[in-house]
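HOLO CASE FILE
Compound: flavin-adenine dinucleotide
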Amino acid sequence: MEHAYFKQTQLGPLLETLRLFGELHGPVLSEAGVASFAALDDLGALRLDYGKTRIPPKKYLFPFREELLQYRDGIYRQSPLDPPNIVLFGVHPCDLAAIAYLDRVFLAERPEPAYALRRERLTLVGVSCEPDDFCFCSQPQEGGACDLFLAPRKDGFQLAFAGAKGAALAEAARGLLSEARPEGEMSAPFRAIPAQDPQLRFSDHPLWQKFALTCVSCGACSVCCPTCYCFDLREYPSLDGGGTRLREWDNCLFATHGEVAGANFRASRLDRLRYRFLHKYCGFSPLEGMSSCVGCGRCKEVCPVDIDLRELCGGPDAAAAVPPAPLRPAS
Amino acid sequence: MNRTTFDPHTPFAATLLDRRSLSEDTALFSVLAEPAAVEPLARFLPGQFLQLSVPGAGEIPISPADLPSADGTLQLCVRRVGHVTEHLHRAEIGCKLGVRGPFGVGFPVEEMTGRPVLLLAGGLGIAPLRSLICYLLRQPERFGEITLMYGAKQPQLMLFREELSVLAAQGRLRLYLTVDFAPQQPTGDFSCAVGLLPELLQGFVFDAQRSYVAVCGPPPLYRCLMDELLGAGVAAERILLSLERRMRCGIGRCCHCALGQKLCCIDGPVFRLSELQRIPEAL
Ligand SMILES: Cc1cc2nc3c(=O)[nH]c(=O)nc-3n(C[C@H](O)[C@H](O)[C@H](O)COP(=O)(O)OP(=O)(O)OC[C@H]3O[C@@H](n4cnc5c(N)ncnc54)[C@H](O)[C@@H]3O)c2cc1C
Ligand code: SF4
Ligand code: SF4
Ligand code: FES
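Model generated. Tokens follow.
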């Protein structure tokens, strides 16, 4: 990992340089005041002071709906996919940790071709954050699994880069940078909640019953979670005899999630909340024993009935227990 | 878990060769997979499953009812219960299908070598167990005595009963059949006991200390059989259950098939009872 410094006034030129590596996207505010990641056609729209986006950056790697296969005359083939190169600017450390987690899910074993291609063409530029009322990783973080990371300093930014992509970005921006010594420890959170004891899902904590009674199964907590990735596969025939198979986001809070012909393996809301607890804080095979909650706080913020499953975790302050992991390249 | 070298995301092409009706809603489908699939299919172990695609309808998990043949022909016993299975039952002979797999963990046949095997099948649970029977019968000298106890709702729903009776008559298999109820059994038809599988098991004397027991059936069946088997002295490590869950991807990603922290598609579908004892959601 290497460091450099650039002045606040060079931010615009730096962003223009990043455009050389792909479509530039970053946090913007909608008319309704909701932050989202979107194309930065106009650099003036960039809001580096954003709290968090409603929809996490997973949408760039794992779109809500993706065509995976096509069939014609009954023969299935991979759908052609040619996503643009995208430079995603201004990603907070928790969202970077979430992408690192999704990488393990989709790339570690039997890499999924569509995800792998989108990932290859995504350049990540992280930026440090200010905690808000909902998020809960241990402290404001400076770093993460990305190609380039920016931490505000006096009149400018300290910039860290890692890996081949990071080096290429820094090289292209060389004229804008000056030498810098690393100031402070650049580190990244990995899990805001340490792995929990799976037996906690059967604890007699009264909140389990309360949550099961109040949850409306809207699924917002899962849609907004940067590490939620349950998906469904759907087939759509077309009129000419061919058709497509799509991958779509699914949601573990929906009653259909565990349904089969003639039975439902998670028929009650309590069953489904327990499932969510397990997946978020305990991990499913092959990531058993790994928490996937990065502490962004989105689930709590969007829940219409204020459910926060974290209240069911063991230990006084779960977040304090995780040592920060060092900055590392994204791939 | 077998290492797979093929692309696990894209189905191989396959052709529907034949359909033989077994009961009102269940049929045995012969499906010929394309030559490229022969090698991965040759690694199939009884209890593993395939993802069967019906173009235009979707994809479903199916445990083959026999070992794939050398040319890649599959025997799939499928009950018509919904969207995809309905399309399959209506498909014309010769039409194109797709197969991915085999996936998951099958029966530990290596470990079962030299041991008596008791198979307990309820209803359609006979399908995956039939591939285990085929495997065992191909090398009868390798395994101990094979016993099948098979329960169905009524005599007409008893699948494969002729072929099973023939195997029993040849002395290759000890066979016990039972039906929940028998409306009117025409004389001359095959006979079987009336009652539930656990009752049948109660009076059964077998070498519980050495036997492996393989169970497949509807969820309530597992709950009533486990106490009987443990009570008879079968170790939980030797009780093998083939479980069903909703499955979409088949490769441990979509997360529909979770039971506790395990994923049925990669950690199962065949589990040992000892693995499941800490997972209340499993049975
Ligand atoms: C490991 C395994 C092996 C199986 N082996 C056999 C077999 O040999 N023969 C047989 O007839 N059936 C078998 N099944 C059950 C079979 O997969 C379902 O009956 C089938 O998926 C129903 O699909 P459908 O579209 O016709 O039903 P629908 O009810 O219309 O299905 C609705 C949706 O739910 C899904 N779904 C419904 N039931 C199941 C289910 N049980 N598992 C996964 N997804 C489901 C379907 O894919 C579909 O998208 C097996 C299931 C598993 C998990
Ligand atoms: S569980 Fe909630 S706080 Fe944790 S990563 Fe998901 S949305 Fe963020
Ligand atoms: S956001 Fe709240 S109400 Fe909606 S599904 Fe999640 S926990 Fe239930
Ligand atoms: S079927 Fe997708 S994870 Fe098991």
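CASE NOTES: Chain A has two domains: 2-179, 198-321. The radius of gyration of chain A is 21 Å.
CLOSED: yes
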